[in-house]
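Dear colleagues,

For the upcoming journal club I promised to circulate an example of a predicted protein-ligand complex. I picked one with zinc ion because it came up in last month's discussion. The inputs are reproduced below in full, followed by the predicted structure.
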Amino acid sequence: MKALLILSDGIADVPCPQLGGRTPLEAGTNPHLDRLAAEGITGLMDPLKPGIPAGSDTAHIAIFGENPFSVYRGRGYLEALGVGLSPGADDIGFRVNFGTVTDGVITDRRAGRDPTGLSELVRDITREVSLSVPFSLKEATGTRAALVLKGSGLSYHLTDGDPHREGLAPLSVCPSDGSDDASRTAEIVNDFVAQAAEVLRGHPVNDLREARGLLPANYMLVRGAGIRPVVTPLPERYGISACCIAATALIRGVATCFGLDLIDVPGLTGEYNTVLEDRAGYVLEALDAYDFVFVHFKATDTASHDGNPRRKVEMIEKLDTFVGRLLAGIDPQKVVVALTGDHTTPCMLGDHSGEPVPLVLWGGRVRTDDVLSYGERSCAKGGIGRLTAQDLMPVLMNQAGRVHKFGE
Ligand code: ZN
Ligand code: ZN
């Protein structure tokens, strides 16, 4: 048996007043998600532990079977890996935003979210900034980028340069553990930020941006310092071939750490304009070639962060269309399918929260239950009961016949 795991980021929610007290999953029309629930087995899954809100990074580490409380080493390395930088085992990765600073105060943390000219800025910063260690910088989606510092004797125990709020001055990066390595690394990062600001000040790209009525991208806000988490790759753990279809850099980075091959599918983005529903064919092809296929859909989380439950309903319906097209090409005797989320993102909060997420398994020999629809309340009555994300891979791989007996 093969296995397909479809993950809709932040799909779970809480009752929304704008939807008459229903969640976005409950308010939409999702015949294919409901079919999975009716023909499969459902339950609830805690991404980390009950009540602990998960980041997408820690949740995915758990979903791929490791304990994030022991292996997580920050987000920046995963992000750098995901944008296609190839950080070494000792290197430190950072998340970077191009921001706008006016008179020493951050007026926009994302430079108006407009990426015009940023590749040129990345190129010139890479060319002109000179540090005591080698570094690489690469654009990511929107106005984001990833930075890698290379070399030994560096530490990721650092505070953020991004105060995460507008109207404040950017912060100096400081060591968070008092070690010499962290002090030295903090100095290098602050040196990078200062030199980059020199390059950006009065850069022709920023003149052009301002002439077009855009905000200048004149400051690099760094955060999320991280190193490589030590994890067991899925091919090693289960003797399987595995691949990942995802547009989001972070998820691509986590998947890479777990030994999944990245499959690029045109038209997939982390935004509302993604065309996942038209790309079921790529997933079916991947299922021909691999034992385990992981598909990530970001737009549900995006709608939640935007506080827009109606848009979230639409994005879930997009996912439903994708699932319908996929199921038309899948033989349930050959493929077991799981569909879940990585955390709850209530639209009313615009951020992640600690409630569990609905889970469904379909195909193969799964026991069915009496649940007929896929939603937070309905899946709470399901036959799986409640498990933690770290148990998902064994549960799924057991269905696929990939878990060895423990004992005689
Ligand atoms: Zn997430
Ligand atoms: Zn999120």
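Two points we might discuss: The CA atoms of residues 209 and 216 lie 6 Å apart. The mean pLDDT is 97.

See you all on Thursday,
B. R.
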